[in-house]
Amino acid sequence: MRNLKLPAVAALSLALAACAVGPDYVRPTLATPDSFARGDAAAATDGSVAPQPDNEFWQNFNDPLLTRLIEESLSANHDLRIALSNYDRANALLRGAKFDRFPTITGSASGSESRSSSDQMPNVSNDGRDNESYSVQANASWELDLFGRVRRSVESARAETWASAADLQAMQVSIVGEVARSYVELRGLQERLRVARVNADNQKETLRLVQARFDAGRGTEFDTSRARAQLEATLARVPNLEAQVAVTQHRLAVLTGQTPDALIATLDAAAPLPALPARLDAGTPGELLRRRPDVAAAEHRLHASTARIGVATADLFPRFTLSGLIGSQAIDTSALFERASETRLVALGIDWSFLDIGRVRARIKAADAQAEGELARYQQSVLLALEDTENALVRYARARVEDQHLERAAQDSAKAAQLARVRYEAGAADLFEVLDAERTQLQAQDAFADGRTRSVTGAIALYKAMAGGWPAREPVREGVAGR
Fold first, then answer.
1. Which residue positions does the secretion signal occupy (predicted)?
2. Average pLDDT rounded to a whole number, residues 64-85
3. What percent of the chain has a predicted confidence (pLDDT) above 90?
4. Bigger pLDDT: 36 or 380?
5. Helix, strand, coil abundance in the chain, percent, nearest 5
6. What's the Rg (C-alpha) of the chain?
7. CA geometry: angle at 25 spanning 23 and 29, to 5°?
8. Which residues make Cβ contacts (< 8 Å) with residue 285, sequence separation at least 6?
9. 134 or 45: which carries more pLDDT confidence?
10. 171 exposure class (CB count in 10 Å sphere: 0-12, 13-18, 19+)
11. What would the mean pLDDT of 66-85 be, rounded to a whole number?
């Protein structure tokens, strides 16, 4: 009978080891639209092929300096290094959790020498009252994961590691998007600064003509004051734009992991705005959700919280621990490791908190609530991703239309200002028409520069929402000083 029972016990243990308490993770099914409601808004009608979202999107702007700044940010940005350290930490915790599946083996050795007092051992010589003891032993302890507590713990740690990896990718999306947006805003500000200075030069020429007419007795001080006031108002734009240019340069330097002054010389030289891609296509909502790292991170955290329900549920059942010891103990070091000095122990321990069932069920309830919250967070991340893309699509499309009108307005206002100045010099128009035309020209050209900037940043926002084109590289790791 004994030989029949042992296989049965072994089979039962294997069967229990094959199961794990708690719910198995199943990816939630969410109803998503087949296409974006605003998907056609951003697509051009010229038949051009849209860049693939998996390409490095900044290459589509054909700006080597922008590419260089993004490459530097991906390797040196400190927010990315923080995200990388979180990923490394999660990986280390996962490796630690995996070790719980195997026995824990420790070794120890001790040696002692003592002497009892003559009161304790009367009529015994000093040598007789001396005691020596030496021992060397190896200990092993292994939790028999019959109910899956360890496996659920490893599952949770693995999902958290995946979530940290997605967080790193999401931070890449954020940093690259911010670098590209800041760079475009810098070029837009530099263009607006150029527009303000060119218009100020034109208005200086107008003031010179008005002053000459006044000196010749053909004008009034009122005209001179109006012309000078308009010039001063235009010149007042310059310091604020210069400050915004400097602030944006500082931001780009810090984003690339450098001190704020590091890029001033590089970025001071004005350059045109990056060219817009001919066409943008966000694909389908399903494709988008598979690319978005923030959605992936939310799903992995839902997986981790689901596994933690199993960890808490396993406490309802007894925890079996197999322990073993083998060693040698003797009163003299020369006798160690002899057969007569051998010691060993094999024990099966059972730990079951059945009298603490209330606390166990409270922990299970807490794990259930956390999983429910993570499910809601995952569902919200899906909706926010869809909303983000729909918003980016419509803003980009409308910005392109606005851009076309602003460009024509800038061209026509420049022509009107030139004609007004010619008419004024010929005596066919008064100063008011010239000043009004020049003011309109400044406003239209400034609005066009700002609108073109918003068109390019709108394209960047759409690329960012599509979350494509993120190279598989990690920021540079730097050791802690003194380690």
1. 1-20
2. 93
3. 54
4. 380
5. 65, 10, 25
6. 38
7. 120
8. 32, 33, 34, 35, 36, 386, 389
9. 134
10. buried
11. 93
Contacts of 219 (CB under 8 A, 6+ apart): 210, 211, 213, 431
339: which 2 tokens? 């057969």
Q: How far apart are CA 220 and CA 210, in angstroms?
A: 9
The tokens for 445 are 């050209």
| Structural contact between residues 344 and 327, judged by C-beta atoms closer than 8 angstroms | yes
- The position carrying tokens 């005209």 is 223
Question: Among 160, 139, 157, 143, which Cα is nearest to 100's?
Answer: 143
Cα–Cα dist 60/476, whole Å: 26
Residues 200/227, Cβ–Cβ less than 8 Å: no
Residue whose pair of structure tokens reads 């004005």 in the numeric block: 270
The residue written with tokens 């073109």 in the block is 452
The amino acid at residue 300 is: H
- Look up tokens 């400050």; give the residue: 243
- Give me 35's structure tokens: 């296409």
Q: Which residues pair with 322 in a beta bridge?
A: 142, 348
Q: Rounded to an integer, what distance in angstroms lies between the CA atom of residue 279 and that of residue 62?
A: 15
